[in-house]
Amino acid sequence: MAQDVYADDVRMEQAEARALFLEAMSRVAAPVGIVVTDGPAGRYGITVSSVASVSADPPMVLACINQRSPIAGPLAANRLYTVNMLSPAQAEMAERFAGRDGRYPAYDFGCGAWHAGELGEICLEDAIATLTCTPEQVVQAGTHVIVIGRVLRTVVRDDSALLYCRREFCRPVGLSASA
Ligand SMILES: Cc1cc2nc3c(=O)[nH]c(=O)nc-3n(C[C@H](O)[C@H](O)[C@H](O)COP(=O)(O)O)c2cc1C
Q1: Per the database entry, which stretches of residues form a coiled coil (predicted)?
Q2: Percentage of residues in the chain with pLDDT exceeding 70?
Q3: What range does the domain containing 143 cover?
Q4: Inside any domain, residue 171
């Protein structure tokens, strides 16, 4: 009995620590993108806020993908994917590729305009940056895999970034604009 109370306390502490961690991370403003892959293992896309630059020489980026997401396996197996960074006008696309609440059909590529890149990769029209990658390392980390991709091709467009902060989509505002 005493042991059960102790186990309950530990579980409670772990739940509180987890909630606090999520709360802390909700305050980290992050750019939003859609990672897309197509090939023999299938066509998938997923909204991510975990994209980060790893290296410029050679150019490499990472994205953290939940191992339970259907895209996790195909991303490595197809050997080619794009990281499409979004603008505020594309927030609804981010919602759709986040598959939340089953509100939208899964992998609804019809909700945006796509074209094939020089390497046959799928690129989102009007993304503020599209990075075409081949996976170089896949590192298991907790519930996720860190997919580190070598960037083979980069396309940029001049527009503002879509951010996610405090559980909502927002846009960056320069400090001089709010003075
Ligand atoms: C703003 C935002 C950022 C997200 N970032 C990530 C991420 O970096 N990695 C991830 O695995 N899931 C992330 N998700 C969750 C996935 O988009 C979502 O769980 C997934 O698309 C669900 O569909 P699935 O059933 O195909 O996995 C994010 C969701 C939102 C709304």
Answers
A1: none
A2: 96
A3: 31-165
A4: no
